[in-house]
């Protein structure tokens, strides 16, 4: 996968020989943790394996990987209750986002 913002692949290259061609090689895919709230809660990336050499020119296989987002959108409010006097009472509170958004939030 070249999209290392979604997932990392290890190892990035596999080598098969005449001696080990029947031995399956393990590829580990790790989701990348970010602080972004992703629309739909998921991101997908395609991992491509292309074989070359040894009579395997132009052979390809792909794996589709879906990474589920662990960042929930939410608002953080400093005060949940205010108490004001009728004539001249004022008070304030703050609002902020719980996670970094993917765009402007209104």
Overview of the structural elements:
This protein is mostly beta strands. It is built from no helices and 6 strands. The strands form 3 sheets. It has a two-stranded antiparallel sheet. A two-stranded antiparallel sheet has the order 3-4. The chain is rod-shaped, with a radius of gyration of 25 Å. The model has no long low-confidence stretch (mean pLDDT 85).
Write the layout of secondary structure elements.
Layout: E1 7-10, E2 28-31, E3 42-51, E4 59-68, E5 75-77, E6 95-97
Supply the key terms.
single chain; mainly beta; two-stranded antiparallel ribbon; 32% strand
Radius of gyration: 25 Å
Order of helical and strand elements: EEEEEE
The general outline is rod-shaped
The fraction of residues assigned to DSSP E strands is 25-35%
Distance from first to last alpha carbon:
34 Å
| Discrete helix count | 0
What's the mean pLDDT score? 85
Number of strand elements: 6
The major β-sheet equals: 2 strands, antiparallel
Order of strands side by side in the largest beta sheet?
Answer: 1-2
Helix content: under 10%
| Main structural class | mainly beta
Spans of 5+ residues with little confidence (pLDDT < 50)? none
What is shown here, in short?
The chain is built from no helices and six strands. The protein is an all-beta fold and 106 residues long.
